[in-house]
Design a protein that fits this description.
279 residues, alpha/beta, 6-stranded mixed beta sheet, 5-stranded mixed beta sheet, 5 helices
Length: 279
């Protein structure tokens, strides 16, 4: 199995077993983008029931992170990629955009379209990513939703409210207002996409993080794109052969196999030399 990395390290995975060819409908990968301080992380915190905003340097997301969210009544799961909003992280934002099937573009209805909003729009257009606009902070007195529609129109985003075909949902991420409607809008677009993949093919994925712990184990965070990762799989970095010791979900639940569209973590023992090749 080969592993394609966007992080600091590239490793390769090779399965020790041969599986019959079979097709699998993976969960869609959803990107959340927007200008700094427009409420992107607050929205994500509401979806994952955490409070990452209080841990961010200056309130700014500084990494590409990922987690899963399920619409319980529809039994529908998304993998969500959170990308930085600050101008200093444009390269990381561009990389994150190429991973996703659908994007939520968060726009502050008080401030309107700002520089990183425009940058995100261009990235999404370049990669032909369908967009759902989250018009945030509608709970504030100076909120102006119609002005945002007009500003988006000037950037080539024609929402349904002004006769276009781009879905938009007015929300308050802080209060959790209309988040169900927002996710259902994302689902309606995801339902039109071809997400069939072969879960027994050569594995391809995105490496998000590699950390060595004091125990000597190396913990790797990966988003599986094709194929699968199983406990016991072997992989090679440089001249070192390693084995997946344990496999678990982003929130710490044990896994036997990670299928396409799933984020996961696994650990292995290594001298932790930076890989220069893989096989």
């Amino acid at each position: 199995m080969s592993l394609i990395a966007i992080g600091r390290y590239t490793v390769g995975l090779k399965s020790i077993c041969v599986l019959p060819r079979r097709f699998y409908v993976r969960c869609p990968i959803l990107g959340v983008l927007g200008h700094v301080d427009h409420g992107k992380t607050t929205l994500i915190d509401k979806l994952r029931s955490t409070n990452n905003v209080s841990f961010e340097a200056g309130g700014i997301t500084q990494i590409n992170s990922l987690f899963q969210h399920t619409i319980v009544e529809d039994n529908f799961t998304f993998t969500i990629v959170d990308t930085p909003g600050h101008a200093a992280f444009s390269k990381m934002r561009a990389t994150g955009t190429t991973l996703v099937d659908v994007a939520i573009l968060v726009v502050d209805t008080v401030e309107g379209v700002k520089p990183q909003t425009k940058e995100c729009i261009e990235l999404l257009k370049t990669n032909n990513i369908p967009i759902v606009v989250a018009l945030n902070k509608i709970d504030l007195p100076r909120s102006n939703v119609m002005q945002c529609h007009e500003m988006l129109f000037d950037e080539g985003i024609e929402t349904t409210e002004i006769g276009g075909d781009v879905l938009s949902v007015p929300i308050s991420a802080y209060h959790g207002t209309n988040l169900d409607s927002l996710m259902k809008a994302v689902k309606s677009i995801s339902d039109t996409l071809d997400l069939n993949t072969d879960d027994s093919c050569v594995m391809e994925g995105i490496l998000f993080d590699v950390k060595k712990h004091d125990s000597g184990l190396v913990v790797t965070t990966v988003l599986v794109e094709k194929g699968s990762i199983r406990k016991g799989d072997t992989f090679v970095t440089n001249s070192h052969t390693n084995r997946v010791r344990s496999l678990w979900t982003i929130d710490g639940k044990t896994l036997d196999v990670a299928l396409p569209g799933m984020p996961c973590c696994f650990d292995w023992t290594s001298s932790f030399q930076q890989p220069t090749s893989f096989r």
